[in-house]
Amino acid sequence: MRVLVAMSGGVDSTMAAALLVEAGHEVTGVHLKMADTPSGLPGRGCCTLDDARDARRVADALDIPFYVWDMHDAFTEQVVDDFVTEYAQGRTPNPCIRCNERVKYVAVQDRARSAGFDALATGHHVRLNQDETGRWHMFRPVDTGKDQTYVLYMATQDRLSATLFPCGDYPKATLRAMAKERRLLTASKPDSSDICFIPDRDTSGFLHRQLGSAPGPIVDTQGNEVGTHDGAFAYTIGQRRGLGLGGQAEPKFVTGIRGNVVQIGSRTDLQVAQLAASGATWVLGDPPIDVENLTARVRYHGDQYPVTIEVDGDTVTVYFPQARPLGVAPGQAVVFYDGDECLGGATIDHALA
Question: Which residues are catalytic?
């Protein structure tokens, strides 16, 4: 099988390529130039010159062809600009989902198909299984602490039929040990930061550089002004730190963002009994028949909560009959599971207490 492996320069994509070479596939590596991230900053972003060099050196060690594809414009427009626009509207987007949905997975797979490859492989921690009817199912990986099904919930049957996730069957520590055994230079390389184009993790600073200053009030749940801010776009529901409010009798959290008004409240004010979401997609093509015994995540690497759902076209109403999540933010994804199987998901529009 002719396989194109997306090689970020990290250990996961390194081992994806190595395992596929050892399995006898005709493997080609490609590094995606997306964010203009300088080398040497705290944490690790992606697409630094060092990352490209590391990916190329791994490809040389594996004796496979290697290319660099310039995806910068698509990444900037579809991920970075979307990120800024969503925050400006009081929403909290997940750029990893947007990247996979529009660039890193979908667009790259389309280009790979056009180039004659049979499949795209990535270092995502996901497991796939094909049932007796030929349908593909997507499961959480062996290393659930590295689970990336949340950011791939939009995967379709057509796309999964031409995708390989070699890393899903191994714990991360095992992958590092395997890379070390093969003397691959990425074996001990640190993981990338959550938002690759903000490697210093200062999201507020990044947004202020993009959007400037927009002073406004901070109010309590009764509407009383208790402080001011320099831009509501720099806040997200559930946030506790950085509110600049001293002398409070109990910890305060952001509980709402309405226009340029930031509302704060107590931890109990963050509890959510139900939410509405739109743009639903389902891995199997249709929503689940059993809507009473599911779990859902409302944030990347977050807990899974028992839920029941009502589906109407591409909109979903989600109910939390037992434990209630805290600080559900519009713009994030709600992703549904049946046990370890990822069924699909949708974008959160609003939550109700």
Answer: 99, 196
